[in-house]
């Protein structure tokens, strides 16, 4: 019997090396155990090339045209829309195409529990939470000094400027900083270069790096900073936690949904002085760093590949079972377990 064909539509493919691609690649691996899987960019005309049994679209706005065309051509085909940061926290409220995607999709997926509150009430019953995952790495026992890493392309949503200003404020401290990410906005790239010069080697921006190399640098760090102004459920938080690295995060909904309401490592979004103070405290106070590490370790069970794989397969299996002429009924609201 031929395998059902799942079409994954992602605005980021391998060359982009971003969160969308990491999610699409992982879900492809999970689904290929049972299904034929194709990953494509959200271009017009997909309905002329493919007749999938189900589709998974990442990003409500950027995949909107492809989702609409396929849904119109194949009205009984189930569709899963995975909501990332900019669409969940901005586009669905400001862009008509993104809002239409919510209505079209058979099921919606958010990447952390706080994301459900961002959706209109009418769509929450068809929404589930699937936490992303990363394989565990052992932190480097030979870590020396105090090293902080930020992983994120230089674009406004990641707010690298706040991190850069915090680095400048801490240049007299025995702390080193590494910044990994491509230069998507020239003004931010120029700021990173100026910060590297002015901090006399305390801060280094090394540009885009392969995923495996980035994880190795991460596990050799003491602290990972995420300063974003919006996130759907950041892969870098998961990769830090599963590498035994504590996290300092902006206090946005997407980060709180990942780390928990009571996490001690938040700073007010956009506040470089508060971020610098928190990094400085973590570097000077081993007990505080240990407490952050304990809180991160308590979340680790949420982010295992086995858990994500089971949730993805269950979601797709359910969607295929209710497709065709059978009446559609919503599967259980949450495919993921509660927080530990």
TrEMBL record:
A Pfam family recorded for this sequence: Glycos_transf_1
Domain of life: Bacteria
Protein name: Glycosyl transferase family 1 domain-containing protein
Chain ranges of the Glycosyl transferase family domain: 148-294
Organism (species): Actimicrobium antarcticum
UniProt cross-references to Gene3D superfamilies, sorted A to Z: Glycogen Phosphorylase B
Alphabetical list of InterPro entries matching this protein: Glyco_trans_1, Glycosyltransferase_put
């Amino acid at each position: 019997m031929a395998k059902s064909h799942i079409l994954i539509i992602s605005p980021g493919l391998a060359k982009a090396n971003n969160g969308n691609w990491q999610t699409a690649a992982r879900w492809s691996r999970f689904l290929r155990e049972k299904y034929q899987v194709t990953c494509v960019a959200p271009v017009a005309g997909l309905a002329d090339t493919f007749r999938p049994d189900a589709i998974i679209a990442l990003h409500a706005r950027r995949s909107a045209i492809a989702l609409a065309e396929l849904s119109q051509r194949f009205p009984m085909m189930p569709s899963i829309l995975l909501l990332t940061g900019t669409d969940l926290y901005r586009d669905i409220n400001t862009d008509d195409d993104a809002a239409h995607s919510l209505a079209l999709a058979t099921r919606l997926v958010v990447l952390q529990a706080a994301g459900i509150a961002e959706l209109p009430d009418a769509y929450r019953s068809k929404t589930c939470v699937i936490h992303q995952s990363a394989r565990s790495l052992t932190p480097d026992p030979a870590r020396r000094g105090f090293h902080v890493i930020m992983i994120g392309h230089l674009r406004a949503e990641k707010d690298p400027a706040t991190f850069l200003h915090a680095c400048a404020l801490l240049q007299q401290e025995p702390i080193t900083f590494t910044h990994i990410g491509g230069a998507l906005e020239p003004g931010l790239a120029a700021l990173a270069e100026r910060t590297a010069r002015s901090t006399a080697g305390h801060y280094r921006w090394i540009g885009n790096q392969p995923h495996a190399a980035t994880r190795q640098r991460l596990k050799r760090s003491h602290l990972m900073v995420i300063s974003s102004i919006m996130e759907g459920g950041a892969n870098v938080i998961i990769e830090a936690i599963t590498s035994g690295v504590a996290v300092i995060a902006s206090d946005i909904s997407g980060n709180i949904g990942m780390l928990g309401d009571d996490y001690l490592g938040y700073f007010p979004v956009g506040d470089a002085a508060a971020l610098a103070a928190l990094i400085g405290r973590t570097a000077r106070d081993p007990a505080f760093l240990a407490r952050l590490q304990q809180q991160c370790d308590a979340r680790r069970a949420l982010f295992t590949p086995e858990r994500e794989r089971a949730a993805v397969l269950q979601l797709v299996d359910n969607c295929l079972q209710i497709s065709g002429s059978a009446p559609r009924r919503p599967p259980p609201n949450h495919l993921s377990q509660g927080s530990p």
